[in-house]
Design a protein that fits this description.
It is a single chain. The protein has about 220 residues and is of the alpha/beta class. It has a domain at about 5-20 and about 35-85 and about 150-215: Dihydrofolate Reductase, subunit A (3-Layer(aba) Sandwich). Helices cover about 20% and strands about 30% of the residues. It contains 6 helices and 11 strands. The radius of gyration is 17 Å and the shape is globular. Pfam families: RibD_C. This is Bacterial bifunctional deaminase-reductase C-terminal domain-containing protein.
Length: about 220
């Protein structure tokens, strides 16, 4: 029997004051006001240029090494509905298929947490969006079945990561603290005591663009 993969968070950016998204999220500002600045450390890396933008080139070095780690050995993703798209409530139609165009950067099954059922969406490149209405553990069970021995990445947003953290289900967490201040928005660790939940800092790497912190949950 193959070993079970880990549930991981990779390359999740927060501001120095702890916000993983800015206020007033909308179709025009999906990351909230000022939220795009959280991800500047990653945008120019070779990994993001290739995986997200489909382009050659880009910067190498520690930022790129950590960005690349987030795409290794993945068999499935989990995300919240807010990360999938701006639509709220019952799906008014099925024209919205995500922010990423016809070929999203996932290339494996993606399980979207929602309160409203929707048929799966098959995209180019192997991405299939499945919509899960019965909670985070059901989504994780389905993702494990799809991933086999590979890892499952929780892509976000903030609320989804917080739910999995509170449940003690995330095995390994990589946070990139970007040198920006948002003042308000969605606070990633508000009300969460990582030490009580069994997490410790296993690595920290400082670059000119971010402070990278990796947390590991004790068995």
């Amino acid at each position: 029997m193959n070993a079970q993969g880990k549930l991981i968070v990779r390359s999740f950016s927060v501001s120095f004051d702890g916000y993983g998204a800015g206020p007033d999220q909308s179709l025009d500002t999906p990351l909230g006001v000022g939220g795009f600045g959280l991800h500047q450390w990653a945008m120019g890396t070779r990994t993001f240029q290739k995986k997200v933008f489909g382009k050659d080139g880009g910067a190498t070095g520690p930022d790129d090494d950590l960005a690349a780690m987030g795409f290794e050995n993945l068999g499935a993703w989990i995300m919240g509905r807010n990360m999938f798209g701006p639509v709220r409530g019952a799906w008014p139609d099925e024209s919205w298929k995500g922010w990423w165009g016809e070929e999203p950067p996932y290339h494996c099954p993606v399980f979207v947490l929602t309160h409203h059922a929707r048929a799966p969406i098959t995209m180019r490149g192997g991405t299939v969006f499945h919509f899960v209405t019965d909670g985070i553990e059901a989504a994780l069970d389905r993702a494990r079945q799809a991933a086999g021995s590979k890892d499952i990445r929780v892509g976000g947003g903030v609320a989804t990561i917080r739910e999995y953290l509170r449940a003690g289900l995330i095995d390994d967490l990589h946070i990139a603290m970007s040198p920006v201040l948002l003042g308000r928005g969605e606070a990633l660790f508000e009300g969460i005591d990582l030490s009580v939940l069994g997490y410790t800092v296993r690595e920290h790497v400082a670059t000119p663009s971010a402070m990278h912190l990796r947390f590991h949950r004790k068995d």
